[in-house]
Amino acid sequence: MKRRSKSRLRTGNLAMGYCFSLPVMIFLFIFIFLSIAYCFYMSFFEWKLFDLGKDKTFVGLDNYIRIFQDGIFGQAVGNTLIIVFVCLTLETVLGFLIALTLWNLKRTLRVLQTILLLPMITAPVVVALIWRYIYDPQFGMLNYVLRNTIGIGDIAWLGDESTSLMSVMVVDIWQMTPFTILILFAAMTGISEDWIEAAQVDGAKFWRIVRKIILPALMPILMFILLMRTMDLFKIFDTVYVLTKGGPGFSTETLSMYTYKVGFSQYEMGYAMALSIVTLVGIMLISCFYMRRSKKLEE
């Protein structure tokens, strides 16, 4: 009787859980999976944004073939990969070092912890607008400081192809490094103090403790951060749009920026959807790689 009552209770709990999950699953199915399926289907057609009532021309794989013959797409991929590599590396390294410093100082810098999180909780568009004024060649604070300290003349940070991509990356690093700090600092506070004390008793120095205890304990969290930030950086749009709109030329063109221009400036929706699908597949492959690495680390 007890076993039957327990099994009924479990069945009831499962049914209740499914009932609560059902609205979310329906929402995901309609607004995400169906949207992706429709986007994939329409990527085989050639149609303009304002030709919704007209028959669309089936072109098969032409849109996908065109992608790999598109020089601008190649440059957008290159710029996106540079942004992903540089921003991911610097945000992870800086975030880890700052989080380690805060963790080592314990509660003495709570105000500093709050200040460090301010860029992350500010909207990307607002952050980009602030930095656009900082980068202004004539009236920007950055050029003002450089002019009055080391005598460097006015630099068009966003208007020069040699500095525009770097300037965009600086903004993203400034805004999103606090995300890494927050996650890693929270994870560090969960590391057992007994491990640290035992290592100190054995004569281990601080950096040896970091290398042998803290870093191994943080590896699953680091993989999570790398996955989330990689996905975000592959989709970077608002910062680029406000700062440069992909210019000058195509020096800051990213995958999302180029897809937007194709769809809403050139009105080639079929080609834009093909670009979106290719980007989605790329993100999914990278996500699978990170997830497999995370499983190996857990094992």
Task: Provide an overview of this structure.
Residues 77-290 form the ABC transmembrane type-1 domain. Pfam families: BPD_transp_1. By secondary structure, the chain is mostly helical. The chain has one domain: MetI-like (MetI-like fold, Orthogonal Bundle). It is built from 12 helices and 2 strands. The chain has a two-stranded antiparallel sheet. Helix 3 packs parallel to helix 7 (164-189) and helix 4 (110-121) packs across helix 7 (164-189). It is globular, with a radius of gyration of 25 Å. The two termini are 39 Å apart.
Quick take:
This protein is mainly alpha-helical and 299 residues long.
In terms of DSSP E residues, the strand content is under 5%
- Main sheet strand line-up: 1-2
Mean pLDDT: 87
Q: Which sequence of SSEs, written as H and E, runs from N to C?
A: HEEHHHHHHHHHHH
Helical content (DSSP H or I, runs of 4+):
over 70%
Spatial separation of the terminal alpha carbons: 39 Å
Task: Characterize the main sheet.
Answer: 2 strands, antiparallel
CATH topology: MetI-like fold
The CATH superfamily title: MetI-like
Instruction: Tell me, briefly, the overall form.
Output: globular
CATH class membership: Mainly Alpha
Family: Belongs to the binding-protein-dependent transport system permease family.
Transmembrane segments: 20-44, 81-103, 115-134, 173-192, 213-231, 269-291
Protein name: Sugar ABC transporter permease
Pfam family, one: BPD_transp_1
